[in-house]
Amino acid sequence: MKFLFVLVFSVSVTLCDAELKLEATVGENVTISFKTAELERVDQVRTTFKGENGKKLVARYCRCADCGHCIPVGTPGVSLRIEEGTASLILLDVSSSNSGLYEAQVFNGNNVSEIQATLVVKEPVLSSTKESPQTSSPKPPDSSGHLWLWLCALLILPVLTVIGFLLFKKRRRDHVALPYTEETSAVSSAASSKKYMERNCTDCVAVSFKTCREETEDQLLT
Q: What is the predicted pLDDT for the residue at 140?
């Protein structure tokens, strides 16, 4: 009787898919997908993990939560989702201790399907070349300020040149006009003196003539 039960159980166990092999890096979130058609009307999904410390149950899904023979099981950092023919085992923030063999057993009535997956968690690859120490190099002098000074000088220089030329031209014109003004003043002074002298001379002649006349008349009377 016992031999018959073992034979029936071994026939009911079916390996649907070949073993999956996955790789991940420490700190990543990993999703192990177990796909099987038996999940459409599944009664129970049981996932186990076999690592260095042996084999243990990490998650269990029960279609009938009130059934006494199936009790849901959960593990911190591990969740099990059943969606459209896929049982997804989600591992959060994996480490090297998560490396090992994961197995999902799908119970549908008396039929049991087993799917296995191997996960290898690797340490992050560090760069072999060390970054060279950053040396503070002296900043080159800012040439923008000097450039602005040169531009201002180039703009101001022509203006100063024009102003200087105009001042020089005005000074030269004033210098040329000065002798003519002095000469005109001298001529005017000479003309005034001449008129003054002519008038004085006329007066003198009139006075002399009058004096001579008076003297002549006096002589005739005597």
A: 61
Q: How does strand 111-122 pair with strand 100-108?
A: antiparallel
* Angstrom distance (rounded) from CA 193 to CA 215: 32
Q: Which residues contact 128 (CB under 8 A, 6 or more apart)?
A: none
CATH superfamily, domain at 7-122: Immunoglobulins (2.60.40.10)
Which pLDDT does position 48 carry in this prediction? Answer: 94
Length of the chain: 222
Domain boundary assignment for the chain: 7-122, 150-222
pLDDT confidence of residue 171: 83
Distances (CA, A) of 194 to 187, 190, 197, 201: 10, 6, 5, 10
If DSSP states are collapsed to H, E and C, what string results for the chain? CHHHHHHHHHHHEEECCCCEEEEEECCCCEEEEEECHHHHHCCEEEEEEEECCEEEEEEEEECCCCCCCCCCECECCEEEEEECCEEEEEECCCCHHHCEEEEEEEEECCEEEEEEEEEEEECCCCCCCCCCCCCCCCCCCCHHHHHHHHHHHHHHHHHHHHHHHHHHHHHHHHHHHHHHHHHHHHHHHHHHHHHHHHHHHHHHHHHHHHHHHHHHHHHHHC
Which residue has tokens 């560090």?
Answer: 126
In the chain, which stretches have pLDDT less than 50? 1-17
